[in-house]
Amino acid sequence: MTRLLLALVIVVALAILPYQAIDSDSVAMLERIRGDLADARGRLASVESQNARLRTEIEMLRRDPRAVEEFARRDLGMVRPGEVLIKVDSRRSGGSR
């Protein structure tokens, strides 16, 4: 009887071990997938925010000539006739090298 019980315990243990191994791998994989999903959601939120900002900027450029001028000055470095553009390299600190 004891041998039969021991054999039964061994058989049950051997039957359960593969499922437990698969289950622990599945849990690790699920955690990686959840992490990837959270990263993707964060990137999506960032892109959606950027899209909203750009849509607002496009609408301003369509409606307001001053916005067009500001964009041309800020992003394209354009100046009016007679103006002089001076660029300051903010990476360099004053003083000797």
What's this entry about, in short?
The protein is mainly alpha-helical and 97 residues long.
Give short descriptive properties of this protein.
97 residues; 2 helices; 0% strand
Question: What does this protein structure show overall?
Answer:
- The chain is mainly alpha-helical.
- The protein has one domain (2-76).
- It has two helices and no strands.
Topology:
Layout: H1 2-63, H2 65-76
Helix pairs in contact: 1-2
Shape: rod-shaped
Number of domain modules: 1
Task: Give me the secondary-structure category.
Answer: mainly alpha
Main β-sheet, in a few words?
none
Q: What is the string of helix and strand elements?
A: HH
> Tally of extended strands?
0
Helix content: over 70%
Question: So what's the oligomer here?
Answer: single chain
Q: Distance N terminus to C terminus? A: 90 Å
Number of helices: 2
Regions with pLDDT < 50 over 5+ consecutive residues?
none
Q: Which percent range describes the beta-strand content?
A: under 5%
Q: What's the alpha carbon Rg, rounded to whole Å?
A: 33 Å
Nearest-integer average pLDDT: 82
